[in-house]
Amino acid sequence: MAEKMPQSFTNHTRLDPPYHFFVAPVAAISILVTIWNAIQHPDFIAIWLVVVSLAAFMGVFKARAYALKAQDRVIRLEERLRLATALPEAQRSKIGELSESQLIALRFACDAELPGLFEKTLSGKLPAADIKKAIVNWRPDYFRV
Hints:
Blueprint: H1 17-40, H2 44-86, H3 89-92, H4 100-106, H5 114-124, H6 128-134
């Protein structure tokens, strides 16, 4: 099995080629084609095909959004459990002060730098991008959809 490329802030986002380079473009182009067809041949069926293509486009993007939202919920739970075991007792009561995006961003921090980054996140109200930029030892997440 080939080794995975080490993750960092600059390369942690992931594209899914079948989705990003086929399904999404086909859905978007379908809208344009059906609109063009409705302009060229305005009748009920042509207009209805525009509506159907818009619904399909919306379905494609909502299906991905639902999968990402479910994954974010799992990540939030995982990170709350991880923080509860990795943080000193004095910091554990502050876990609830983190926003969803902060919790999700902290998943990339290794256990050793997690307490310091946690405190820095709360005191500076760091947004997710700044949290990720502050991580020195990146903990990869290869399972993100």
